[in-house]
Design brief:
Number of helices: 10
Largest sheet: none
Helix content: over 70%
Shape: flat
């Protein structure tokens, strides 16, 4: 929708140059756009605020109502299922709305793309008109559907508000009645009159029953709970026959026969008044239900009148929108004429440019064709030269291979002769070394024969002094030992002498 508004704004801004009151119309259009933008911003802020409130309410609800620790978990399970169902319905409705909006958005985008390339042909104009009508019908249909849904929700909201108000009044009445009854139980019997507010809000039978309770000591007739329960047990057992008194005296040791008879009289009157109270409450409920139905009838009647007024307003708005649409359509037609003239001028200039471009392309093609022929000729000559060079290179390599084979054969014969010579020299050297080794062994044998010593064993020589020791004892004579008379030490300074 925003894209449609933008496209419409562009069209009107283009056509404003061809109308007399274009300045005022342009200012009005800008003011309308700004007002729409302000409304959208306000709506977004309100939606965010409501969303935050909804999140807080959801937290409180989940914490108090749907908690597993709650005492009323079973009673609230039905409410939880209903809420889950409504949540799924909301999600489905949201998905449907998003799908419709996406469809409208695609239609507007397609219309924008068509407006960027306008063709001055009747077919294109007809196609553009159909696209505009399709987008407009989609937008109007979506708005109408949402309006009906909104009106239905408004009705449901009013109904829920009225029901909540009635329920609140009923709760207030119950609270007021319970507080009055509690005050009665706290006051002495027969001394406090019935509250005036209780008389104004409750039926006469209910007031009479409450007054009876106030005057007679509450729902147990002034007795304590123990005595009253035993009385009820025995009285119920004998079905109210006089024979119950003897058994009741056994349980109620502190009570006399007259007390029991008086309590029975009070209890019978209590039952009669309580039954009247129940019947009165039922009648009061039926009366309230009838009043509620009357209110609903009046509400439906007022809603019909309001719907009639809304239909009249919608008809007036549709007429106004139709006038605005016709005005916009006239502006679009003027814009189309202006664009057709502009397009024709652009087309003529484009045709001229295309002719010049074709001439340049032909010249360029001829030049490229000549260059291609020259390049093919040069490539063919180069290939022939490379073939000749390759053939010459192969012949030269073949001659070199033959020469290398011949030189290798000659070198091979030389190496074989040299190896044979080396082998002969090595064999001769080995024979010479063996002969020299034999001669050396012979010389050593002769030397061993010359130096070999033949000595006999003499064990007594072990204890005799050696020749060296004997010679040493001859050289060392006797020595004289003298006593040590003087020990050398450091000199004493003169200033210490005599101390």
């Amino acid at each position: 929708m925003a894209a449609m508004a933008t496209a419409s704004g562009q069209q009107q801004s283009d056509c404003c140059f061809s109308t007399p009151d274009s300045g005022q119309h342009f200012q009005f259009q800008n003011w309308t756009i700004k007002a729409d933008q302000a409304k959208k911003a306000e709506f977004i802020r309100t939606a965010e605020k409501l969303k935050n409130q909804l999140v807080n309410i959801e937290k409180d609800k989940n914490g108090h109502l749907y908690s597993k620790k709650s005492d009323f978990r079973v009673e609230y399970s039905t409410l939880e299922e209903l809420e889950h169902k409504m949540t799924n319905n909301r999600k489905a409705e949201k998905a449907k709305i998003q799908q419709q909006l996406a469809k409208i958005h695609n239609n507007v985008k397609r219309l924008q793309r068509q407006l960027k390339d306008v063709k001055p042909t009747p077919e294109f104009v007809e196609k553009l008109r159909e696209m505009m009508e399709e987008a407009e019908n989609a937008i109007n249909g979506f708005k109408e559907e949402q309006r009906l849904i909104y009106e239905e929700l408004m009705k449901e909201e009013k109904t829920a508000t009225n029901e909540l108000s009635a329920l609140q009044k009923k709760i207030d009445t119950w609270a007021l009645g319970s507080s009055a009854i509690e005050r009665v139980f706290r006051l002495p019997s027969g001394k406090v009159p019935v509250d005036k507010t209780l008389q104004n809000h409750l039926p006469e039978e209910v007031v009479e029953f409450e007054r009876f309770l106030q005057q007679t000591g509450g729902r147990q007739g002034g007795w304590d709970d123990y005595d009253h329960q035993h009385f009820l047990k025995v009285w119920t057992k004998h079905k109210g026959k006089p024979s119950y008194i003897e058994e009741a005296l056994e349980y109620l040791s502190g009570r006399t026969k007259e007390d029991i008879q008086q309590h029975e009289t009070w209890y019978q009157e209590f039952l009669i008044l309580e039954e009247r109270k129940k019947e009165s409450i039922e009648k009061w409920k039926m009366k309230k239900q009838q009043e509620k139905q009357e209110i609903l009838k009046q509400k439906q009647k007022s809603e019909k009148m309001l719907k009639t007024e809304n239909l009249q307003q919608e008809a007036a708005q549709k007429q106004k929108a139709e006038k605005e649409r016709k005005k916009q359509q006239a502006a679009v037609e003027a814009w189309k004429r202006h664009k057709e003239i502009e397009f024709a001028m652009k087309q003529a200039s484009r045709l001229k440019e295309e002719e010049e471009r074709e001439k340049k392309q032909q010249k360029e093609c001829q030049r490229q064709f000549q260059l291609k022929l020259l390049l093919e000729k040069y490539t063919r000559q180069k290939e022939e030269q490379e073939a000749l060079q390759k053939l010459e290179k192969e012949k030269r390599e073949e001659a070199e291979r033959e020469e290398r084979k011949r030189i290798a054969a000659e070198e091979m014969s030389k190496f074989q002769e040299r190896d044979l010579h080396k082998l002969e020299v090595k064999i001769l050297g080995k024979q010479a070394k063996e002969e020299e080794k034999i001669e050396k062994e012979k010389r050593l044998a002769k030397l061993r024969e010359k130096v070999e010593v033949h000595v006999t064993r003499d064990p007594s020589r072990l204890y005799k002094p050696t020749k060296g020791w004997e010679e040493r004892t001859k050289e060392i004579g006797p020595t004289d030992v003298q006593p040590l008379l003087h020990i050398p030490h450091r000199a004493i300074p003169t200033w210490r002498q005599g101390l």
